[in-house]
Amino acid sequence: MHLLKNIPGWIRNKYLLTSLFFLIWMLFFDHNDLFLQIARSRELSKLNAGRNFYRTQIDSTRIILEGIRNDPSKLETIARERYLMKRDEEQVFVIDRE
Question: Which terminus of the chain is more exposed, N or C, with fewer CB under 10 A?
Answer without folding.
Answer: C
